[in-house]
What we know:
28% of the residues lie in helices and 19% in strands. The protein contains three helices and four strands; from the N terminus they run ββαβαβα. The chain has helices at residues 47-61, 76-85, 98-101; strands at residues 12-16, 36-40, 67-71, 89-93. The strands form two sheets. Strands 1-2 form a two-stranded parallel ribbon. The protein has a two-stranded parallel sheet with strand order 3-4. β3 (67-71), α2 and β4 (89-93) form a beta-alpha-beta unit. α1 runs parallel beside α2 (76-85). The longest helix has 15 residues, at 47-61.
Amino acid sequence: MARGDGTKLPMLFVIYGASGGRIEKNEFPTFPAGHVYAMQNKTWMDDDVWKTYLRSLLLPMFVEPSVLLLNNLFSDESYWIVNEELSTHLIALPANATSVGQP
Length: 103
């Protein structure tokens, strides 16, 4: 993900493991710095991981009202968090729409 000015945003990596579990300390040196890692038993972003991503990663990155485009991710709570806490507009794209707009 990146901002309109090209500034890259931190990534969230979802790693297979017990939900909310810890990553072994000896694995940390192999993970890129500056990103956030979450443990999930199905390795996909659920509501809890998404809320953490919005509040912990995106909130500090928004310096002015923005637009957040999402593909294949919708929740009423997402709209509330993005609009109220991030002072940002959330636009939910139709499913799989990003493949149409990419070169």
